[in-house]
Amino acid sequence: MTGRSEDLFDFIASSLYQFVEKNDSVQSPITKLLGFTFSFPVKQTSVSSGVLIKWTKGFAIRDMVEKEVAGALQQALTRKGLNMRVSVLVNDTVGTLALGHYHDADTVAAVIIGTGTNACYWERTDAIIKCQGLLTTSGGMVVNMEWGNFWSSHLPRTSYDIELDAESPNPNDQGFEKMISGMYLGDIVRRVILRMSEESDVFGPVSSRLYLPFTLRTPLMAAMHEDDSPELTQVARILKDVLDIPDIPLKARKLVVKICDVVTRRAARLAAAGIVGILKKIGRDGSGGITGGRSRSDIKMRRTAVAVEGSLYTQYTMFREYLHEALNEILGEDIARHVVVIVTEDGSGTGAALLAASHSSENVNNIQLI
């Protein structure tokens, strides 16, 4: 994650070699088409090439920034002796959209809500200002939003958000992501508990572990939030084992659950607002293009599907419920019933394979897909 680009892509090629060795002949004369999912901001130059703009999610390989991504993998595949061609380069959101649309033709957008968060959607080419005259045969294009980096003065931050951002490896970047995704929610809760410990004795003496960033991981936060035992035994156990806060009364444990609830609800509602923003942009929010968010009763709503992937949505029940609650609230129940959120599995992998197949110009009988 922090070494040389050659080491990274050699590692990917070696892992791929081992996979092929187990499942097929490495020496096969048939060229295998590879769909390459690369979940980082890229300037896409063609369906099979793109330049890395910057790293996210803890990666920091400096010699790769502003370099062509698919070519680097292709060179590593060649060095490893693999007869493969990188057929498509996609972001994980685009792969998820491809898989979602493969199963449901009404899918117009895809959202990743896991360790990080991002979204993409299908847009008319003539509605994309940045296209600058570029045309597609379909008249449309998939826009990878990189919405994790969204920022606006209308998006109020708390002191906890500001401190987390300032102390992160990428300050002033990925502001929306730091309020929503699984990498950060647990740490926001830790920071709130720390502030309460410093300003009151509700949790007893201040634990030194509260000063360690990312000590409280989001899965543990979710476990505390969803603890339904009468004495909140899960909350007590996690506070003791992870944060070294033992023997706190039930009233204080209930306070921790409330903190988890507030942080999770805000994250889910922000994610829902982002989804509605996409639907509004493409006229699927019931407004019929009317500004101000007013709905029109004379517009026949089309069924609209949004593909979602990521552990925060799929494994965190309260997050998922709050997101759906917010969609209903923002859109109104009459409109929201036409919007279907569909969970996909391995959209980033399977979707990339589907795209590799669909972009093949060779005879399908001479192609093997991984």
Word description of this protein:
With 370 residues, the protein is an alpha/beta fold. The protein folds into 2 domains: 5-90, ATPase, nucleotide binding domain (Nucleotidyltransferase, domain 5, 2-Layer Sandwich), CATH 3.30.420; 92-346, 3-Layer(aba) Sandwich (Hexokinase, domain 1), CATH 3.40.367. The protein is built from 13 helices and 10 strands. The strands form 3 sheets. The protein has a 5-stranded mixed sheet, sandwiched between helices. Strands 4-1-10 form a 3-stranded parallel sheet. β5 and β6 form a beta hairpin. α6 (185-199) packs across α9 (250-281) and α7 packs across α9. It is globular and about 70 Å long. The two termini are 25 Å apart. The relative contact order is 0.15. Residues 363-370 have low confidence and may be disordered. InterPro entries: ATPase_NBD, Hexokinase, Hexokinase_BS, Hexokinase_C, Hexokinase_N. Belongs to the hexokinase family. One of its GO terms (biological process) is intracellular glucose homeostasis. This is Phosphotransferase. Pfam families: Hexokinase_1, Hexokinase_2.
Radius of gyration: 23 Å
Which stretches of 5+ consecutive residues score pLDDT under 50? Answer: 363-370
Physical arrangement of strands within the biggest beta sheet: 7-6-5-8-9
Largest sheet: 5 strands, mixed
Q: Give the structural class.
A: alpha/beta
Q: Helical stretch count? A: 13
Helix content: 40-55%
The CATH topology of the largest domain comes to Hexokinase, domain 1
How many domains make up the coordinates?
Answer: 2
What letter string, H or E per element, gives the SSE order? HEEEHEHEEEHHHHHHEHHHEHE
CATH architectural arrangement of the largest domain? 3-Layer(aba) Sandwich
Q: What's the mean pLDDT score?
A: 90
CATH class of the largest domain: Alpha Beta
Q: Give the DSSP E fraction (strand runs of 2 or more residues).
A: 5-15%
Number of strands: 10
Q: In whole angstroms, how far apart are the ends?
A: 25 Å
Shape: globular
Quaternary form: single chain
Protein name: Phosphotransferase
Keywords: ATP-binding, Glycolysis, Kinase, Nucleotide-binding, Transferase
InterPro entries: ATPase_NBD, Hexokinase, Hexokinase_BS, Hexokinase_C, Hexokinase_N
EC number: 2.7.1.-
